[in-house]
Write a structure and sequence with these properties.
Keywords: Kelch repeat, Repeat. Pfam families: F-box, Kelch_KLHDC2_KLHL20_DRC7. Residues 40-80 form the F-box domain. InterPro entries: F-box-like_dom_sf, F-box_dom, Kelch-typ_b-propeller, Kelch_1. There is one protein chain. This protein has 373 residues and is α+β, with helices and mostly antiparallel strands. It contains 7 helices and 24 strands. Strands 3-2-1-24 form a 4-stranded antiparallel β-sheet, with no helix packed on it. A hairpin with a 2-residue loop joins strand 20 (318-322) and strand 21 (325-329).
């Protein structure tokens, strides 16, 4: 048995060394002045530095220019993803009691929220913005102000360089819309804008070319309440008095580029933010307390999992996930963690762990996303 485990370990090591060599050969990073680590070939140094936990990268960048260039390279991101050693952090977009927007980051191992500096000034007072993660970047899209019409501006944050930058504008100015990432593309869907084109339009963003492409479809309506992506399909839910039925949902199949209406128990009972995690889909129902629901994919209906203690979290809440761990984030960034491997459905109050809220904070979470590097 021990010899078999030893052989398996050697096999895994050989595969990892092959991947390292392949990535080094096609890497867009090259040490220009000297080796990354004196005395070691760069492919071995590549392997060593790639395994340093993400929380220490900001320190290592001061060692040399070569290290800084490597730690901010696309090669590092791709390699850590390919061998399964990426660290996942959570980013939350919040609005404070003075109506200013802030962005916070959570490194789960430290169990503490920290404000992310450098949010573009243009975004700090906007309403109706949305954010989404594509690859190694967090995108902040659109929005409007009390005296400002909807904008088509898009900003992105790169955690490796720790910088915000403006990227290509959307084709259409929009606010109060949704954004989803699917099959390597970023989607901006529906919402309100300075022209009626925003009501039934949607657009896709290609990060490699930095180009947006606009589309029209009558299945896309205003008043989008929530969005959700799973099984290569984007679902959007509309709630409004000008729509019949009052709760209306549509689905976009990314594999064949088609929209269709959806009228089933899943969409009729979809009352809050939802996320896919560990092969299952979970939803936070905030009607009459905070309840965790799970989608029965066969019957296409939501099944009660359990309740969250009102002493641990305040509404409104958003949800995200890292692997099989759910993070339900409420007002003031109160955070409840739920291990989906230990869930017993329908047993009343859920067993959870929690992360303390920000001191003296009443911030409302607009959106929260997980970014893995």
């Amino acid at each position: 048995m021990d010899s078999q485990k030893h052989l398996e370990s050697l096999h895994l090591l050989e595969n990892e060394e092959k991947k390292t060599a392949q990535f080094h050969q096609k890497s867009n990073f090259e040490a220009t002045d000297s080796s990354l680590i004196p005395g070691l070939p760069n492919d071995i140094a590549f392997l060593c530095l790639s395994r340093v936990p993400r929380q220490y990268h900001h320190i290592l960048k001061f060692v040399s220019k070569n290290w800084r260039d490597f730690l901010t390279s696309e090669s590092l991101f791709q390699y850590r993803q390919s061998v399964g050693i990426a660290d996942s952090w959570i980013y939350a977009l919040c609005r404070d009691s003075s109506e200013y927007v802030h962005c916070y980051v959570l490194y789960p191992a430290r169990r503490r929220w920290k404000e992310l500096p450098g949010l573009p000034d243009a975004c700090s007072k906007r309403f109706g913005m949305t954010c989404e993660v594509l690859g190694r970047r967090l995108f902040l899209l659109g929005g409007c102000g009390w005296s400002e019409e909807a904008t088509n501006e898009v900003y992105c944050y790169d955690p490796l360089s720790n910088k915000w930058q403006r990227v290509a504008d959307m084709e259409t100015a929009r606010c109060h819309f949704v954004a989803e990432a699917c099959n390597g593309r970023l989607y901006a869907i529906g919402g309100m804008g300075s022209t009626s084109a925003a009501l039934t339009s949607w657009e896709t963003y290609d990060a490699e070319t930095n180009i947006w492409t606009s589309h029209e479809n009558l299945n896309v309506l205003p008043d989008i309440g929530e969005s959700l992506t799973f099984d290569d399909t984007i679902y959007i839910r509309h709630v409004g008095t000008n729509v019949y039925p009052p709760t209306y949902a549509a689905a976009y199949d990314a594999s064949n580029n088609t929209w269709s209406t959806v009228d089933d128990e899943m969409t009729m009972s979809w009352y809050g933010p939802a996320i896919e995690a560990g092969g299952e889909v979970y939803m936070v129902d905030q009607m009459l307390g905070v309840k965790l629901m799970m989608l029965d994919r066969v019957k296409r209906c939501w099944v009660f999992v359990g309740r969250l203690s009102p002493h641990l979290i305040r509404t409104p809440c958003r949800i995200t996930a890292i692997d099989n761990m759910l993070y339900v984030i409420g007002r003031g960034l109160q955070t409840v963690m739920i291990d989906t491997d230990k869930i017993e459905r329908g047993r009343g109050m859920l067993v959870t762990s929690s992360i303390a809220e920000l001191p003296c904070s009443d911030d409302v979470v607009i959106s929260c996303k997980t970014l893995s590097i």
